[in-house]
Amino acid sequence: RDMAFDMYEGEVTVLLGHNGAGKTTCMNVLTGMLSADGGDATIYGHSVTHDLAAVRREISLCPQHNILFQDMTCLEHLEFFAALKGQNAGQRRASAMEMLAAVDLADKADVFADNLSGGQKRKLSVAIAFVGGNRMVFLDEPTAGMDVAARRHTWDLIKKMSAKHTIVLTTHYMDEADLLGSQIAIMSAGRLKCSGSSMFLKGRLGVGYTLTVACTSAEAAYDVVELVKSN
What we know:
Shape: globular
Oligomer: single chain
Radius of gyration: 21 Å
Strand order of the largest sheet: 4-5-6-1-7-8
């Protein structure tokens, strides 16, 4: 409701908020999966309300839940979606192999999606979003279900890909927003509450840090208090 802000090529815009804040709904409206009750959004000069077909030629989406064909391999998934996005036969294989390597699934190229772990399925969904070269990429909680190492690898990929794309990413992890977000838009109850860079938001809205220390004795506690006071 009443959301208005700009997103820029070469940057990652993060929609940050708790579960139910409206992040996915906002993304679904921007991609045309839901119709807006009012207003409009423009993506590379095309109206979401009046020219959705042109918008969809510019965008790609990694949904919150993996939508994969269980009897297709990782390579077949990427070649299939590259074809849907208009790449010719010669481009598809190269694009697919490049993205498999980028998400650390090169050794899983011929593995069926049904045999992948949850984290690997998530990696494949992220790869599908980037294959084909769409200029604007929507990533709905892309690292959900990944282990720590896979999350960091995916963060590196998103930062690298942001140089050539406009990326919109949803998350409820503050560390993810802080690391990736050129602009962080905080949502609650379907509304945009504030937006800006991480440093801007911390400077305007931050309340400092809370330090919790567990001490083994009263003497140690006294020493800690004196140390904090002196610094």
